[in-house]
Amino acid sequence: VRNLWVKLPDEEDYIIRGFNLTIHAGEVHALMGPNGSGKSTLAKVLSGHPGYEVTDGEVLFRGEDILEMEPDERARMGLFLAFQYPMEVPANFLRLAYQRRFDTEIKYTDFYKVLLQHLKKLEMDPSFAGRPVNEGFSGGEKKRFEIVQMSLLEPVLAVLDETDSGLDIDALKIVSNGVNMMRSPERSFLVITHYQRILNYIQPDYVHVMVEGRIVRSGGPELALQLEEKGYDWVRGELAGATAP
Prior knowledge:
Layout: E1 2-7, E2 14-19, E3 28-32, H1 39-47, E4 53-58, E5 60-61, E6 64-65, H2 71-77, E7 79-82, H3 93-102, H4 108-121, H5 139-153, E8 157-161, H6 169-182, E9 188-193, E10 206-211, E11 214-219, H7 221-230, H8 233-236
């Protein structure tokens, strides 16, 4: 991500202000920051949400600038977003997504068997395979099922937008184990979170602090521990003014 500037249409104030971030294959990056810093906006822009205006910058994924691509094109390239607030979607969504992701046709009975394998990894009841996605799920079940979807679709880059929010400690461990099982030299993760606790289970290679739309400090896992101890005020003083393009 290079010099990314993002705002809402018809608004003058920018949400993301000259944001830069490089994630290499196999790396896990944690993006932390206070409410309103632009973390979830970044996740949505990466996935192709139409509600934002990008005025400058580029997002290169696997060598291609994806900003002009439709969300499904990005997904088929291997970009995955686990939503902060997962939505209910039609029952056949996962099979259709699987077919588009891997450019193949698969019978429902065969797909059902594949889905059961991934549900088992996340310790979810097999009955979830026959239910509409997220319909009637608890908050924790929705977050766990997001990781089931990620496991199923085998992304190249997975963006987890506050997947830890609303999870009790048992669900947090299960979700984290699901992510850790998928770590590989070819797959990367961007873990967006307010809190350090998920990083006790998903060990990041790098931690970044985002304030007012851009990264103001980067470091290793120890940076998350410092934030847990000191809060975000100690990094705000490092924020210099940025001028919109």
